[in-house]
User: Fold this.
Amino acid sequence: KSVKQTIIVSSTMAAEFITCFEASNYGIWMQNFITNLRVVDGIKRPLKIYCDNNSVVLYSNNNRSTTKSKFIDIKFLVVKERVQNKKISIEHIRTNFMLADPLTKGLVPKVFHEHTAHMSVIPYGTLV
Assistant:
């Protein structure tokens, strides 16, 4: 899901952290939905969230709070709790491998075409 964030933040780390919070909400809801359909007995593995921001990955896996992180609203500490309870895991991925980037930002044409090819997106007009 790609939407404009409703919160103004003062750092990239905070923006990415908020995005991880929102993604975990939707992911956990989907896990519960699938489990309640009784299609599967349950989903044991943590939901993997890939993030290209090292600060978010380190902060989410760290039990301590710092003065620099005090500006993050209490509700976003839920992400840290979900990581500790193994409901989600936030893993670092290099920006070059972030396949969602063509959907969220402008990229140079070469990188854009590489990413869309990995997503199996076929350019319009190439179908025979």
